[in-house]
Structures are given as C-alpha cells and as structure tokens.
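for ur thesis appendix - TGF-beta family profile domain-containing protein. copy paste whatever u need, i formatted it the way the template wanted (i think)
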Amino acid sequence: PFITLGLGETRKQRKKRAIHCSPGMRECCRQEFYVSFEEMGWDNWILVPRGFNANYCTGSCYGHILPVYHHTEVIQKVALLRKQRELSPCCAPTKMFDLSLLYYDKDENLFQENVSNMVVEECGCS
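the 3d part is after this line
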C-alpha cells in the first residue's frame, strides 16, 4: 500500500514570532526585565521572591511576522489596502504566567498567593 499526497501551491513563508529578543532584533520579541522588590521599597512586606523577571514585549509587527489572531491578519491586510498606518498591529503579550508571593499583610499575617499574569512568557503581533 502507498499513500499519495497531492501538494498544492506553496504558501509564502512567514517567520514565526521570536520568543527572546537578541541584540539588534527589530521584530516583535520578549525582552527580559528584572523587577527587584527591594528597589521598589516592597522588600519589607514581600518575603519571597526578592524579585522576578517580569519581561515585556517590544519590536515591530511589520513584514513577515505571523499574527497571533486571524482578526489581526484581516485588519492588517485591509489597512495596507487603505493605506491606514494607524491600524498596524502591536507587539503584545500572548502568554503570561502567574507569580507566587509569600508576603505579610497590614496586620503582619503571613500569606502565600499566586498573582495572575505577572510574567510575560511569549509575545506576538495582535
């Protein structure tokens, strides 16, 4: 037995969004950014962690970057046809993680809490 595959025309290749920024990178990517609770003056009530990599998204969404949503792709194509530059997609978080904190409340009770969406893990054009 054989499996026969019919291949249609090949699509133009587009780059997948990069996860980490590298020196000189201009496309949408995740830039590491460390937040120190001591630097913020919060080290007297947040015990653990002492800080964390919050990260942020930066870079251009022009060119051959694969949009995160179909909506973005449609808007981008129509904006190009209409020459409306203000409708360009933005580099923004697409995946985030929670941050677990051990801290004292105002009455000096010790608490552990997971704070939602504190760490940018991936970025994309949306």
